[in-house]
Amino acid sequence: MIKVAIIINAYRKQSEQVNKLLQKCIKSVEMDTIVYKTQGQKDAINFAIECCENKMDVIIAVGGDGTVNEIVNGIMLGGNHIPRLAIIPNGTGNDFVRSMYLNCDLTKFYDALLAGDYRTVDIGQIDYEDQKRYFMNVGDVGFGGKVVQVLDKQRSYMGGKASYALAILKSFIGYRRPVLQIVGDNFQYEGIVLLVAFCNGPIFGDGIVINPFAKMNDGKLSVTLFGKVSLLDYIRNLKSLKSGKAIDHPEATYFETSYLEIKIIHGKAVTETDGEYLPNGNLKVSIAKTKIDVLFY
Question: Which class is domain 2-91?
Answer without folding.
Answer: alpha beta
